[in-house]
Design goal:
heterodimer; A: 199 residues; mainly alpha; Arc Repressor Mutant, subunit A; 0% strand; elongated; B: 110 residues
């Protein structure tokens, strides 16, 4: 995100109302934004919907952008806000997830879909569920922050631009969130050891 | 950094691998433009609704004005007499009753 970005001219054109430039901007960033949202919300079926919302908000807020240099942090801020809004809505609307279904129901669901989960996909699915269970130990705000830092690989400087917070404040929040996740990880490891020992 | 922290970092990296960016559907861009158009239309509708509301309110005011200006049958004159004047004007029933007793009693034969 440092230095002059090739998207700068697109941003300038899109701000002047050039719809073609906006289309190019979306195409340039959609993959990255879809990936970030997928990791933030953890629901593949809703990723595209949230990503569309991000780009719609971008379209209507381009005029408020001070300079094209801060376009990427701006876009990430919109992404974080849209993901957070989505997670808040989901909190109010509990629904059955695959993880809540019994094994028999899972088998029936798989049979109905006519799919056969291969080992690799199953391993990835378990990994996703495990990491999400660890991240569930922290608040939604901290989970998003931790995901951006640890999983998306954003730097503290980038996070500062996105959140508009001081580096120290971010470090403290990240440290506390990571410590809680680490504790949950230790607990899960201890539980796994106990299970193996009891067999 | 402890082993557990390294494990956690590895886990996060593996999670990133396990959650690849989904490919956008062909409806991705048209969907964005549909939403943009829908939101553009909303502010355009607000002045139209406001204009309709103003027209309805003006018509209502006009109708009420016409109703108030229509000639109506004269109202009965308002009684401007004070409470005491009204009392004086009305027959004093209790006095009459008293008088009645006094006046109609046949006098004792002397």
């Amino acid at each position: 995100m440092d230095g002059v970005h090739p998207a700068d001219s697109l941003v300038r054109r899109a701000r002047k109302g050039d719809d073609e430039a906006f289309n190019e901007l979306v195409q340039a960033y959609r993959k990255r934004i879809l990936g970030t949202i997928a990791r933030l919300i953890g629901r593949p079926e809703d990723v595209e919907d949230v990503a569309q919302e991000v780009f719609v908000r971008l379209y209507f807020s381009l005029q408020q952008l001070r300079s094209p240099d801060v376009f990427e942090p701006w876009l990430y801020r919109l992404t974080v806000n849209a993901a957070y809004d989505y997670l808040r809505r989901q909190r109010r609307r509990p629904e059955t997830r695959m993880a809540d279904l019994s094994d028999q129901q899972m088998l029936l669901a798989d049979a109905a879909e006519g799919t056969r989960i291969c080992d690799e996909q199953e391993r990835k699915g378990r990994l996703r569920d495990f990491v999400r269970s660890l991240l569930a130990e922290v608040s939604e705000e901290d989970r998003i922050l931790l995901t951006l830092k640890e999983i998306e690989g954003l730097s503290l400087k980038e996070l500062q631009q996105i959140y508009g917070a001081s580096e120290n404040a971010l470090k403290v929040r990240l440290f506390r969130a990571r410590r809680r996740v680490l504790r949950a990880y230790r607990r899960s490891q201890a539980a796994a050891h106990n299970q193996v020992g009891s067999r | 950094m402890t082993d557990e922290q390294k494990d956690l970092d590895r886990l996060f990296a593996a999670y990133r691998e396990a959650c690849p960016a989904p490919a956008p559907s062909p409806e991705f861009m048209p969907g964005i433009w549909r939403r943009i158009e829908a939101r553009r239309r909303l502010p355009a509708l607000v002045p139209r609704w406001a204009a309709g509301f103003v027209a309805a309110a003006a018509t209502l005011c006009l109708l009420m004005g016409v109703y108030l200006l229509l000639p109506r049958a004269p109202e009965p004159p308002v009684d401007t007499a004070t409470y005491l004047e009204t009392l004086e004007g009305s027959p004093a029933l209790e006095t009459m009753a008293y008088m009645e007793v006094v006046s109609f009693e046949p006098p004792e034969s002397q």
